[in-house]
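User: Can you write out an input/output pair for a complex, sequences first and structure second?

Assistant: Here is one pair. Inputs:
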Amino acid sequence: MTDSVVAASNPARGPSRVSSWSLLFNNRLAAIGLLLLGALVLVALLAPVLPLPDPNATALAQRLQPLLSEGQLLGTDELGRDILSRLIWGSRVSMTVGFAATLVAAAIGSAIGLLSGYAGGRMDNVMMRGIDMLMAFPYILLALAIVAALGPGLMNALYAIAVVNIPFFARNVRGVTLALSRAEFVDAARLSGKGHLSVLCTELLPNVLPVIVITMSTTAGWMILETAGLSFLGLGAQPPQADLGSMLGAGRAQLFTAPHVSVVPGVMIFLIVISLNVLGDGIRDILDPRLRSGALLRPGPRTAVHPDRTSPKNGNTDAVLNVEALETGFIRNGRYTAAVQEISLHLNPGECLGLIGESGSGKSVTALSIMGLVNSPPGLIRNGAIYLDGEDVLAMPEIRLISCRGSRVAYIFQDPLTTLHPMHPIGRQVEEAIAAHQRLDRQTLRKHSIMLLERVGIPDAGERAKHFPHQLSGGQRQRVGIAMALANDPDVIIADEPTTALDVTVQAQILDLLRDLQKERGMALLFITHDFGVVAEVCDRVAVMKDGVVVETGETQALLSNPQHNYTKRLIACVPEIGQGQDFLNRVSKLFRPEQSV
Amino acid sequence: MNTHAIELRQVTKIFGGGRSLFGGSRHAVKAVDDVSLTLRRGETLAVVGESGSGKSTLARMLVGLEQPTTGDMRIAGHDAVELRRQGARVFGKIVQYVFQDPVASLNPRKTISDILDTPLKLLNGYTQEKRRARMADLLDAVQMPRDTLGRYPHEFSGGQAQRIAIARALAAEAQILILDEPVSALDVSVQAQVLLLLQELKQTLDLSYLFISHDLAVVEAISDRVAVMRSGRLVEEASVETLFKAPQDPYTRQLIGSAPKIRRN
C-alpha cells in the first residue's frame, strides 16, 4: 500500500543526459569544423611569436615569387611582401573584426529582442518597426552607406557589419521571448518578488541563450565574409595593413600572371567560413531540443514490426478486433525498451471496451499500435498479433493496412483543435475523410458530409460546414472529429481520451452521442480514458493498465464495485465522487498514511 | 483582527474595448462581471465553473497579475490598490498563487534551490543560513526528499512538481493561497495525495484557500463554501453541504448532473 509514497520520495531520474561535447563529436562534420577552426584561431593567435617576416616589409626585387619558393613558402605579392606572413596576420585581423562584430550585434540585437518581446504593446511595435527599417535595405548596401558616412577604416567596417546584423538577433530573440514571457514561470517569478529587470535577466535570458548562441554560430561566418567584402572594396583595412579581403583585392590585378596572390587568401576565407558554418550547424543540432530528440526523422508510413516477432494464434474468432500478446517499444540510442508488454484485448462487435490507466501506463501506445500509427523510428512492435476480423494487421501489406485505416478502424483523438486542419472549412474536411475511401461525385460528397454533421448534432449543418475549426467551440470540434471517424462506417472506433479537454456539461453530451451512435450503427468502441466516472458511463467491459501491462479485465459494473487487483482497488479509492464530501479525504488518508490511521 | 481574508465588492474585469488606431471600437469581453465574494480566515472557498467562466481571471486579479476594471478588492484588510502601490513584494507577502500546470510554472533552467530561494530572499529578506534552514523545512512540509534542491524541474513528475510549486508559495509565508486548478493536471492517485497535503498544510499553518476548480467532486471533498461562476457572473454561493444537497440555480444543477459517476452498489 505504501509503494506510491516510496515512489514519491524517489524522484525518477530522467534518462542519463548525453553531454553536449560528446554529441558534437558524434557529428563528424561539426567535429572537423571545430578542429579546423581551432587550428586556424591558434595559428592566428600565435602570429606574434611565430618566426614570420614582417608582413609589411616590401622587397620589390623579390616581387611575385611563386608558391614554395625558397624562404617564402607561399611566395610574395606584387610588392614582394611574404604572403604566408600577411596571410596569418590578415586572418588575425579578419577573424577579430568578424567575431567582434558578431558579439556587438548579438549583444545589441538580443537586448532589443528581449526588451521588445517582454514589454509588448507599443514599445514592441516601435522597436520592431525600427528593425524593419534596417531590414528594408539590402544589407551590403546599408553597410556601404554606413562606411561611406563614417569613412573607410577597420573600426567603421566593424560598426557597419554589426549594425546590419542586429535585425537577425533582434527578431529571433523577440519571437522566443514573446512566447516565454507569457509562461507561467514568469508570473511565478514576479509573485516571488522579482522586478521586471530581474525577471528579464535571470528568468528569460537563460531560456533565450540557446537561441542567441545558435544565431551567433550561424552568422559569424557570414560576418567574416562581409568584413572581407568591405576590405575588398577598399572600405575596411587600409594599406599597408594586411586583411584577407584587402589581400584578395590587391591580388585581383595579378589574377592571370600570378594567380596565387589572390587564390591563397581566397582559400583561407573559404576555410574559415566553411569551418564556422559546419560547426554552427552542429551547435544548432545540439542546442535545439527538438532536433536532439530526433523529431526531424521522418516516420515511416507504419510502425516497424520486428521480423522475429512471436505470432500467437487468433484465440477469439468472434471478436472484431483481437489483440494477442502485443509488445511495443521504442529504440532510443540504439537500445530497445518495451513500453507495453503482453497486451491481450478483444473487442466484440457492438461492444464498448474501456482502457483505463494513469499517464504513462501505455494506453495510447496500445491504441496507436493497432493500426500501426506509432512513429517508427523510434517505435517497434516487437511481439504479438493484432487480428481485425481474423486477419493479422501486422502481416498486412502496407497498402492494405492504409486502406483499412478510417474505413474499418477509425480514430478519435483528444484535442480536435490539433487534429483538424486550421485552414480548411470543416465540411471539406469531412468530405476528404469520405473521399479517402469512396469514389463519389462532389454533390454526393457534400450531401454525405452534411448528413454526418447533422447526425453528430451540429445545428444548421449546411451553413456550419463552411466554418473553420477556430470558429467552433471545443465540443463542436469534437463532434466534427466524430463525424470524420464515422465517415466510412468503420467496424471499430478507437477513441483516445475524446472528452478530456472538454467541460463536464459538454462531456456529458459527447458521451451520450457516442453511446447513441454505437447502438445505432453496431460499432465496436475502444474507449481510452483515465476517468473511472466516464468508464462507468459508457463502457461494457474495462481493462486496467499499469506500467505497460493489463492488470485486470472485467465487466464494468463488476470491476468497479468489486475490483480484484490491488492497483485497481487503490485507483478507485482515489477517485473523489459527488456525495462523499470530506469523507473522501479521510478515506485516502488511510490509504497514504497508514501509520496515522492506526 | 479582521476576519476576512479576501473581500471582493462588485469587481468587474473587461478585456479589450477602447478605440483602435483607426477609430473603430475594439471587441470587449467581460471576463468577470460584478462579482462580490468573501473568503473568511481559515476557510476554503471553492470557485467552480467551466472554461471561460472567468474563474482564472478572478484568481489572477487577487494576486495582482491583473487589475480589476472597476470594483474594490480588500486582501487581509488592506486595499488591493494600496497594496499594488506598495509594490509586488508587499503583495506577495500576503497572498500567493499555485498554478494549474506545475511543470510550466517552474523555470526549466533553474534548480529547485534557486526557485525556492527567490521568495525567501526577496519577500522575507532572510540571511543565507536562515534560507537554507527554511528550504529544508519547506521540503519536509510538502514531503519531498532533501536532494530535491540540486535538481532541475524536468527531473520530477507532475505530482512532485506540484509539491515543489506549493513549497514555493508557502515560502512567502503568506496566509492566503490562491490555488488555480492545482490538481486537474494530475493523475487520480497523485491528485488524492496533493489534496491531502493541502488539507494538512491548511490545518498546521492556519491558511485560507481560494480553490479554483472545474471538478465538483474535488471541490466537495476539500472546501467549506462553494461559489459557482458562469460567463463571468456569480450564479450561486452556498456552504458545501447546502450546495450539493439542494442546488438552487439550474446551472448548478446541470453541472452536478453532468459529472460522471461511478455507480457502485
